[in-house]
Amino acid sequence: MTTATTGCLYLVPTPIGNLADITERAITVLQQCDAIAAEDTRHSGQLLQHFGIQTPMFALHEHNERQRVGQVIERLQQGQQIALISDAGMPLISDPGYVLVTQCRQLGIPVSALPGACAVVTALAGSGLPTDRFTFEGFLPAKPQQRRKRLQELVNEPRTLIFYESPHRILDTLADVVSVFGVSRPCVLARELSKQFETYLSGSAEEIQQQVAADSNQQRGEIVLMLGGAPADDTDEATSAALQTVAVLRRELPLKKAAALAAEIHGVRKNALYQLALASDNQ
């Protein structure tokens, strides 16, 4: 623990499932700090009780962070040591804390992030997808139109894509993934990591969609959805093949519908394919 006049904000990761994954250092910080800022005090209270930690808590979550940050800063400036925890995993990673950490950095208040559990890297390491380059996109938008737009923006991304998703939206999201990325894009769904029913489903996007739709158990718990990146060397070839498919489909269908179906078959961007086909008509 710091002994400076100004206190320190500690970012303390908590287990994403198995309580044995907490580190000794995390327990020490939580025991010795003056207060704990928790995303959900009732949820975190069970964790603290399990480890016999009696440090007082207060709530800091997405709905009150901006209002409460001034009070936390004041306590830190008075020399208090405060730990920030989320419901599970590393604080700030799709969880509250960004506003507070930014303010601390701007004011010169020490911030110490402890290493520990994080569902992003845990899922990626066990996925079998490329790990040398990846991008974490957090939660996709809940509204269908916005979700599809975000996916369209990522369809040609060569890095492995990682998303968090909630159980009640996973079927809709997988349907959008198949529609936007095509049926054959490599896909891994990791569920309930480090818990009793930990599951990895691997296959094509269409295969994962079918497995999840057929088994309601795969629609439960904490979900990390991962997609293989667009094969950079094959992008032009796939687009060329898709344009040929558009030409065939247009014998029976309007251009817009033909482009949408061809994009789904070949895993290319629907809008881009439509524009290319339209440009070919104008030549």
How is the topology of this model organized?
Layout: E1 9-11, H1 24-32, E2 35-38, H2 41-50, E3 57-59, H3 65-77, E4 82-85, H4 98-107, E5 111-113, H5 119-125, E6 134-139, H6 144-154, E7 160-165, H7 170-181, E8 186-191, E9 199-204, H8 205-214, E10 223-227, H9 235-249, H10 255-266, H11 270-282
Parallel strand pairs: 1-4, 1-5, 2-3, 2-4, 6-7
Antiparallel strand pairs: 7-10, 8-9, 8-10
Summarize the structure.
The chain is an alpha/beta fold.
Question: How would you describe this protein?
Answer:
By secondary structure, the protein is α/β, with parallel strands linked by helices. The protein has eleven helices and ten strands. The chain has helices at 24-32, 41-50, 65-77, 98-107, 119-125, 144-154, 170-181, 205-214, 235-249, 255-266, 270-282, and strands spanning 9-11, 35-38, 57-59, 82-85, 111-113, 134-139, 160-165, 186-191, 199-204, 223-227. The strands form two sheets. Strands 3-2-4-1-5 form a five-stranded parallel beta sheet, with helices on both faces. The chain has a five-stranded mixed beta sheet with strand order 6-7-10-8-9. A hairpin with a 7-residue loop joins strand 8 and strand 9 (199-204).
Helix content: 40-55%
For the biggest β-sheet, the strand order reads: 3-2-4-1-5
Q: What low-confidence regions span 5 or more consecutive residues with pLDDT below 50?
A: none
Principal-axes geometry comes out as: elongated
Structural class: alpha/beta
Radius of gyration: 23 Å
DSSP E strands, number: 10
What composes the largest sheet? 5 strands, parallel
Distance between the termini: 70 Å
Number of helices: 11
